[in-house]
Design a protein that fits this description.
The complex is a heterodimer of chains A (about 450) and B (about 325).
Chain A lengths: L17 H6 L4 H9 L2 H11 L11 H6 L10 E6 L8 H8 L1 H15 L3 E6 L4 H16 L15 E6 L9 H8 L23 E5 H13 L1 H6 L1 E2 L2 E2 L1 E8 L5 E6 L2 E2 H6 L13 E5 L8 E2 H5 L8 E2 L1 H5 L2 H4 L7 E6 L4 H15 L5 H18 L5 H14 L7 H25 L1 H6 L6 H4 L4 H5 L5
Parallel strand pairs in A: 1-2, 1-4, 2-3, 7-13
Antiparallel strand pairs in A: 5-6, 7-8, 9-12, 10-11, 10-13
Chain B lengths: L1 E5 L2 E5 L5 H8 L25 E6 L12 E2 L9 E4 L4 H14 L17 H9 L16 E2 L4 E3 L9 H8 L7 E3 L6 E3 L13 H5 L5 E3 L12 E6 L8 E7 L2 E6 L14 H6 L7 E5 L34
Parallel strand pairs in B: 1-5
Antiparallel strand pairs in B: 1-2, 3-4, 3-5, 6-7, 7-10, 8-9, 11-12, 11-14, 12-13
Helix pairs in contact in B: 2-3
Classes of the chains: A alpha/beta (about 450), B alpha+beta (about 325).
Chain lengths: ~450, ~325
């Protein structure tokens, strides 16, 4: 279902190199944008496409670009956020690894639209091997006249630099990324001022996700109008979903937004169903920071409609019964997965990755991890569950950057939907010491998707 | 000039003022507590989150409320803004939560802490702290270290407000002092075990809101409430020489900078004044400093004493008698 836009040519051998990429319609959109369109027209086309930020927040890209301070006489910067570190998300790595030129193409067009002459790709420290791939691609683009001074004979000049970080999750937050890029400690800045006015080196800056910027290239070649017709409602176009967990075919899939979650999980061309013929228990639909949803709520909304993979449908019911599309890290848990252990694992991650700048996040993430460690290892008390909810509430919304929210949501949602499992851990301390998985598997068996929808994909 | 309403009090402030500064202009109970913000240090603020307030009305142009509580120390005011501090139960609840988290790893060793009696965290927990702790986890521990000859660092007590880091960065010329590691194991350090020898390094003691950085020349000499702070000055080639001398009888126990009503230094003083001049003959004593009636330090001072009613109604917030 749905056409592929980003990953259409991914299977062509040698697509990573410039020549093969160019022969398969690469850099055509750059030529189109630079020769036939003005920067304002490119921006308008992106706005018309309805493209939304693919990094997690889903903010309309055209709107974000329009905030850029164009009156300032300082240089402007475009920063590509390739610090993809969210557990469960690996789409940007896949994209950069296989199609580095697609990203560079998107960067050139975006820089042209924004009037940027210097562009940085901030790559996560652990993805160091990608720096070589991207630098090779940048060099090839330079040699073929798509980067450098006065490219394609126009007045527009652009240089792209790939910059590896040191491997910190917090540097995916845009202001922490800018601090890190400036060579400082990667602490998020206090906003306002926003990067659109005071970003990198105090100059107006736009920070966008890899997938967002890569999508700009096909938008220009196919036209914003055509792109906006794909998808559903305000969730236009396609999205890369990195599926992992207990499924038959983990990997990165490009889907048209609006695809039913059930089809995505069970259809053979996507995840291909739950591994080992087990039942679905829960799904984290957008990377580890978004709320977890149990099987019945991920397949159908609380109103009884089918849940679709789109910004609106996944958020249906807010945090009570909904979640978020986030960055598209689709983590599937089967009946044997222990939610308490998973929540502890996620909290451990956030404790380790908190920058320690503001007090609720610094102290709260550590506290939640310690409590969950106790519950998981058979030393929990009943009041600990309510305490966790209270700590999560104390962190949420009180921090400088969204990491505090990201740490609080998984815990709050896990308790909201799987409170019985937490209670089971407290009540059976001896049992959970040895058996870590699926303490409550019998109850979740009733949540078979077929019984509710009558549609069978598997 | 911009009109702002804070807790139903209207005030006119200049453009670019933050909510906290506007509240300080009003003064009194309206002022949100600030553990990390320091008006004399550029870039400070926004970290401790105790000064969170609710903005129920953004501006005249945009009457929507702000979606989250905002840090009043770093949010600039807009014309027609309506801010709720003590009038909002949500803010009080959030602040209680923050104080609980701040105290989570604090050793609560006030009986042996030199800062006790003039500690911002003590005041804050008196106002917003819970009666009993909900945690049974072990508190994080660090060794006590010396940074320089005269400064002791108790990292256990630190709430990581970054004030000393900004002081070391902005007041002293050579920065050797920063935050190491991240998350809840981050610590203030002088990489690696350096001594701070700068002439103005002693100011980190005065900016510290808790007892993490203390004066080694005063350590365990006396409790602050037994001493009387006096305004004193001397001719100093490095700083203004205006200090407060903490005296017991005719003896000077310690020298600190002069702090204003919000606990901020009026002027930074040099190490020579602070650590070396402990003799009365070094100083011109001007007279006693005014101490807030709420402070325990004022216990030995009888100026402006009012008769207190014996039974004071306590409603929600515990307030020290005014």
């Amino acid at each position: 279902m749905g056409g592929k836009i980003l990953l259409a040519n991914i299977d062509i051998p040698g697509i990573r190199g410039f020549d093969v990429y160019r022969a398969n319609g690469g850099y055509v959109s750059v030529e189109k944008a630079l020769r036939e369109m003005t920067p304002a027209q490119v921006g308008a086309e992106v706005t018309r496409s309805g493209l939304r930020g693919r990094g997690g927040a889903g903010f309309p890209t055209g709107l974000k670009w329009s905030f850029l301070d164009r009156k300032s006489d300082k240089p402007r910067y475009l920063v590509c956020n390739a610090d993809e570190s969210e557990p469960g998300t690996f789409k940007d790595r896949y994209l950069m690894h296989h199609l580095p030129h697609l990203l560079i193409e998107g960067l050139i067009i975006s820089s042209y639209a924004l009037g940027v002459n210097t562009c940085y790709i901030y790559i996560r420290g652990e993805f160091k091997y990608l720096v070589g791939i991207l630098e090779k691609a940048i060099k090839e683009a330079h040699l073929n006249g798509f980067l450098g001074n006065r490219l394609l004979g126009t007045d527009f000049s652009l240089n792209i630099f790939a910059h590896p970080g040191a491997g910190a999750y917090i540097c995916g937050e845009e202001t922490a990324l800018l601090e890190s890029l400036e060579g400082k400690r990667g602490n998020p800045r206090i906003k306002p001022p926003f990067p659109a006015f005071k970003g990198l080196y105090g100059c107006p800056t736009v920070v966008n996700n890899v997938e967002t910027l890569a999508t700009v290239a096909p938008i220009i070649s196919m036209g914003g109008e055509a792109y906006s017709k794909m998808g559903k409602g305000k969730s236009t176009g396609t999205k890369l979903i990195s599926a992992c967990g207990n499924i038959n075919n983990p990997g990165v899939y490009e889907i048209e937004l609006g695809l039913p979650v059930e089809e995505f999980i069970y259809a053979p061309e996507y995840c291909g169903g739950i591994a080992n013929d087990k039942y679905l228990k829960a799904v984290i639909p957008g990377g580890s920071s978004v709320p977890i949803l149990p099987a019945d709520l991920i397949l159908n909304t609380s109103k009884g409609e089918r849940r679709l993979i789109s910004y609106e449908s996944l958020a249906e019911g807010d945090f009570e019964t909904g979640s978020m599309l986030g960055s598209g890290g689709f983590i599937v848990y089967d009946e044997d997965a222990c939610i308490v252990r998973n929540t502890w694992n996620l909290t451990h991650f956030y404790r380790h990755e908190s920058c320690g700048q503001c007090s609720p996040c610094r102290e709260g993430t550590g506290w939640m991890e310690k409590i969950l460690y106790r519950i998981e290892h058979g030393k929990g008390r009943m009041q600990d569950i309510d305490l966790l909810v209270r700590v999560a509430k104390n962190i949420e919304g009180h921090t400088i950057c969204p990491l505090g929210d990201a740490a609080a949501w998984p815990v709050a949602s896990a308790i909201r939907h799987f409170r019985k499992e937490f209670e089971y851990h407290v009540e059976h301390p001896e049992e959970v010491k040895d058996i870590h998985h699926g303490s409550l598997k019998i109850e979740t068996r009733s949540l078979m998707p077929e019984s509710q929808t009558g549609i069978k994909y598997w | 000039m911009i009109k702002v309403t804070i807790d139903n009090i209207l005030i006119e402030v200049e453009d670019g003022t933050t909510i906290l500064q506007a509240a300080r202009k009003i003064g009194g109970k309206v002022v949100p507590p600030a553990m990390c913000y320091y008006s004399k240090l550029k870039g400070s603020g926004g970290k401790c989150r105790t000064c969170l307030v609710k903005v129920s009305h953004c501006s005249t142009k945009d009457p929507r409320p702000m979606p989250k509580l905002v840090a009043s120390c770093s949010t600039p005011v807009q014309d027609g803004m309506v801010v709720e501090n003590l009038t909002s139960p949500e803010v009080i609840e959030a602040r209680r939560g923050i104080v609980e988290l701040l105290l989570l790893n604090h050793p609560l060793d006030c009986p042996v802490c030199d800062q006790a009696g003039e500690c911002d965290l003590q005041d804050l927990s008196f106002g917003y702290g819970l009666e009993e702790t909900a945690t049974e986890e072990e508190r994080r521990e660090f060794p006590v270290t010396d940074i320089g000859d005269n400064i002791k660092l108790h990292m256990n007590r630190c709430i990581l407000c970054y004030r000393c880091v900004y002081t070391a960065d902005q007041i002293t010329d050579k920065r050797l002092h920063g935050v190491l590691y991240r998350g809840d194991v981050s610590e203030i350090g002088t990489f690696i075990r350096n001594a701070i020898t700068n002439d103005f390094s002693g100011n980190v003691i005065d900016v510290c809101p808790v007892g993490a950085l203390t004066d080694k020349t005063f350590r365990f000499k006396s409790r602050v409430w037994f001493l009387k702070p006096m305004n004193a000055h001397r001719h100093c080639s490095k700083c203004s020489g205006k200090v407060s001398a903490w005296m017991f009888g005719n003896e000077i126990y310690r020298i600190t900078g002069r702090k204003d009503q919000f606990g901020e230094l009026e002027e930074f003083i040099c190490n020579e004044c602070r650590f070396e001049k402990k003799d009365v003959s070094d100083w011109m004593i001007e007279g006693p400093r005014h101490i807030r009636r709420q402070s325990v330090i004022s216990a030995n001072h009888y100026e402006k004493m009012k008769k207190q009613s014996i039974i004071k109604p306590i409603d929600g917030l515990m307030e020290p008698p005014d």
